[in-house]
């Protein structure tokens, strides 16, 4: 089931991938990778609350797995809970120190969050000066992560 989910993910058929990952979870409920993969599908489908749940579940099953933390933090950030996403990212960095590649990703994510928050702050300040919303499109944080 996981392999079929991965295949659907590669084809950008996220809803189909979610169905396969959900079936795989029924047979392997302690597999953190499946939860992480499904979280990424939810992120790509803009179902951020569901992504938060799966990302969190992956981190509870495997606390040192950086990808699970990355996806959890990203979904939380995209939901608009920036402070909690930043705090969760910092906590993930303490848990994942033994994973150099994962640490690199978490540090890059933290920097990306800082940039997004600063840009958002500047937009709000500009809007308050002008007295109306800035209609410039806001940039989304996007996941360039892959499934396993």
Automatic annotation (TrEMBL):
InterPro entries: TPR-like_helical_dom_sf, TPR_rpt. Signal peptide: none annotated. Residues 120-130 have a biased composition (Basic and acidic residues). It comes from the Eukaryota. Gene3D superfamilies: Tetratricopeptide repeat domain. Residues 120-148 are annotated as: Disordered. PANTHER family: E3 UBIQUITIN-PROTEIN LIGASE TTC3 (PTHR17550:SF4). This is Stress-induced phosphoprotein 1.
